[in-house]
Design goal:
By secondary structure, the protein is of the alpha+beta class. Helices cover 17% and strands 40% of the residues. The chain has a 6-stranded antiparallel sheet with strand order 1-2-3-4-5-6. The termini are far apart.
């Protein structure tokens, strides 16, 4: 199971909730902002909020979020051991 994580682009913080199949729900300022899905290595799609169908219009912010998701997935933070090895 993939766990939610946070990313930052400039001054903006996003909460990322993986849903599987390269689909993510993105929260911005504590509110659901957009659902996105990876289309190609360089292109991410956002979903229409009313129809839940992917929109094929180019969106720079969505692509920046996608790049940060890819970077996070390539180098996830290491889990800290809860045991103290003293």
């Amino acid at each position: 199971m993939l766990l939610p994580f946070d990313i930052e682009i400039g001054e903006i913080n996003y909460a990322v909730f993986p849903e599987g199949n390269d689909t993510y729900v993105i929260f911005k300022d504590g509110k659901e902002y957009v659902q996105i899905q990876k289309d190609t290595a360089e292109q991410w799609l956002k979903f229409d909020k009313e129809t839940a169908l992917p929109l094929f219009d180019y969106d720079e912010e969505v692509n920046q979020i996608g790049k940060q998701i890819d970077a996070y997935n390539e180098n996830p933070p290491e889990e800290e051991d809860e045991e103290d090895l003293d």
